[in-house]
Amino acid sequence: MRRDGAWREALAAELVPGDIVQLSLGAIVCADLRIIAGLVLLDQSMLTGESIPAEAGQGKTAYAGALVRRGKATGEVVATGARTYFGRAAELVRIADVETSEQKAVLGIVRNLTIINFTIVVAMVAYAHRIGMSAAQIIPLVLTALLAAVPVALPATFTLAATLGARALALKGVLLTRLTALHEAAIIDVLCADKTGTLTANELAVSAVRVLREGCGEDDVLLAAALASSPDGQDPVDAAIRSVDRGKSASRYQRVLRFVPFDPAVKMAEAVAIDSVVNEVRIVKGAPAAVAALAPMTDEACADLAALTAAGYRTLAVASGPPDNLTMVGLIAFGDPPRADSAGLLAELRSLGVATVMVTGDAAATAATVARSIGLEGAVCPPGKISDSVGPDEFAVYAGIFPEDKFRLVRAFQGRGHTVGMCGDGANDAPALRQAQMGIAVSSATDVAKAAAGIVLTSPGLGGIVAAIEEGRSGFQRIMTYTLSLLVNKSATLVVMLAGLIMTGHAVLTPMLQALSMLAGDLVTMSRAADRATPSPYPNSWRIGNLTRAAIPLAIFKLSYYVGVLATGWFVLGLDPDRMRTLTFLVLVLGGQATIYVLRARHHLWQSRPAPVMLCTSLADVTIVTSLALGGVLMTPLAPVIVAILFGATLAFAFALDAVKRIVFARLRID
Q1: Domains, in order of start, for the chain
Q2: What is the H or E stretch that residue 461 is in?
Q3: What pTM did the predictor assign?
Q4: More confident residue, 555 or 45
C-alpha cells in the first residue's frame, strides 16, 4: 500500500479511499480498485459466478474478493467495506423481503374461518343462554365449539406436504433450503434465468473460426493458435484452443523452438516453430489490433472481425510466417456455448405457463446471441436504470446489469402482480435470490448464493427447475383441496352443533367426542399430503375468495345431510341425548371422510384412485370410531342397525356431494 508517498504493508481493514495498492499474481483484491497502471486477469467467479476470468487494465475496476490469475497492476482504492460491490450486495440481501404465498394463504384462511366461526359460536352461546342453560353446561359447549373452530392441522399439513415434496425433489437433484419454496414453485409465472452456468455451459470454448489465408483451413488456424499457447498453463483461452480437435494438420510442424507466454503489455503470445520442410516459422496470437500491427488485416478480415464482435464473441487473431514477413492466418472467436438442453427446457417452461427472461451481467451482444440460439425471442433491454414498472413481457434479455439492478428487476415484476423465480450463481445474485419468491441457486453457485436461495440445484441446467415446478404444483393441488375440505368441514361442524342444540335443547357433542372427531379427521386429512395429484398445466395461485365461495354451497349441502341425520335420530328413532351425541360424532367422522374423498379431485370421485397410505389411514379411522360407537367406549353405544344405515347414507351423500362439486367447480376456478 502507498500512502503519503511511501509504500508499506498494511491490513485490508486499514485501507481507505485514495490509497494506492499493488496487485500481483495470486493476490486477492482487498477493496474496489480503479486500475491506474498495468493489466491483470481477474477471476471474479466468487462475485459473479462467471467462470471466465476478465482482463482489467487502466481505467477498469477490480472488485474486492477477485483473484489475480495473471499480470501485475497498480490501483487506487475507490470503495471499502459495505461500499464495495460485494458489500452493497450483502446489504441488499439484508433488506430483501417478500411475503410468501403460503403466509398469505394461511392468514386468509384463518381470517375467513374466524369471521364465520366466531359468528356461529356467539349465536350458539346466545341461544344456550336464552333457553336457560347453566354456566356449567355452556362452558363445555363453548370449549367444544372452539375445538371445532380452530384449524389445528393446518400448519402441520402444509409442512408435511412440503416435506414430502422436498424428499421427492432430493431424489431428482433438487434441494430445498426453505420448505415454503416448494409452494412458491407452484405459483411462479416468471423465471429470471442467469445466463452463465444455467443457460450456458459456463466454460470458454471455440465458437467460430474465420480463415483469412488462402490455402488454409480451420484446422490450420487452430494448430497455429495451439503452438502459440501455453502447453500446461491455466489460461482459459489457451485451454480452449488446446481442447479442439485439429485433425491431420498437426503434421505441418515438427517442433516448437521457443515459446513466449502472453504478455499483457503487448497483448500477444508467440512461438517459433520448425515446419515440415525445416523452415523457422514465427506464430503470434493475441488481440486483433496488436496482431494487425505485425500482419495487416484486409477489408474482408475487418468485416469478419466486426461481425464476430457484434455477435458478442471474444475474438483473437492469429498470424504466421517468416519472422520478418507475417501474414494473417485467421480469427478465432470464443464464447460460453449454450447447454444442449436449454432450448428444450425453455420450451417446456413455456408450455407450463412460465415466461422466461435472461438476466446477465454480460454485454448485450453476447446475451442476445445466446438468447437467439436457445429460442428466447424478444427485445433486449437498453442500457440504463431499469424502470420500476417494467414487466416480463417487454424484454426477453436484460444484459449488463448489476446486483441492485437484478434486485430492482425482481421487485418490479412483483409490483406488477407476478410471482417471480430467480436463478443465479454468484454473490452478486444473492439479493435477487432472497427477494424472489423462488430463489434458485444453480449447481455451480457460491455459498453466498446458496444461503440466499430457497432451492439449490445439484445438476447443471434448468431440468431441476422444471422438476421443482411440477412437484410444487402437485403439492399445491393436495394443499388446496385440503383447504377447501377444511373450510367446508369446520363451518358445517359448528352449524350442526347449533342446529343440534336448537333441535334437542342439549349439546350434541362433548369436548371429548369433538377431540376424537378431530383426531380421526385430521389423520386422514394429513395423509392427503402423500396422495396422488396431477400438476396443473398453468401457474397456480391462492384464490381464497373463490375457495370460500365454493365452500359455501358445499357446506350448505353437507349441513343439510347432517341436520337430516340428526332429525331422523331425534324425531324418528327417538334417541336420547347421550345416543344423539354418539350419532353426531359418528356422522361427523364418516361425513368428513366422504368429503375428503369427494373434494380430492376435480373430476368424479371414482375416476382417481387414492394413495395406499390415505386408504389405510381412512380404513383404520373408520374401524376405530365404529368400534367405539358400537362398543360404547367413551360414549353411549348405538345399535348395529343404526350404524349400518348411517354407512349407507354416507355413501349416498358422497355421490350426491360429488354432483354438487362438479357444478361448483364448473363455475368457480379455485386454483
Answers
A1: 2-83 (2.70.150.10), 102-163+473-667 (1.20.1110.10), 181-201+338-466 (3.40.50.1000), 205-335 (3.40.1110.10)
A2: none
A3: 0.74
A4: 555
